[in-house]
Design a protein that fits this description.
Strand content: 5-15%
Order of helices and strands: EHHHE
Radius of gyration: 12 Å
Number of strands: 2
Shape: elongated
Helix content: 40-55%
Length: 68
């Protein structure tokens, strides 16, 4: 289960491009075997790399829950 705010998908890079739903979905798929905390850390790192040098204009909230 992944809960998130649009601050993730609407994070902008220096070309004014959005991080996007597609990019976020791909990351979640790529990191699905990791623990929730590892997924969150990986997503945070990817957003930071994507937006380097740009100020975040919206809140970012991400909750990842796995049930076995």
């Amino acid at each position: 289960l992944v809960l998130f705010t649009d601050g993730i998908t609407e994070a902008k890079n220096n070309s004014d491009e959005d991080f996007s739903d597609e990019r976020f979905e791909k990351l979640l798929h790529d990191y699905s075997s990791l623990s929730p905390s590892e997924i969150i850390n990986k997503v945070e790192n990817e957003i930071s790399k994507f937006t380097i040098g740009e100020q975040q204009s919206d809140d970012i909230t991400l909750v990842v829950i796995k049930v076995k």
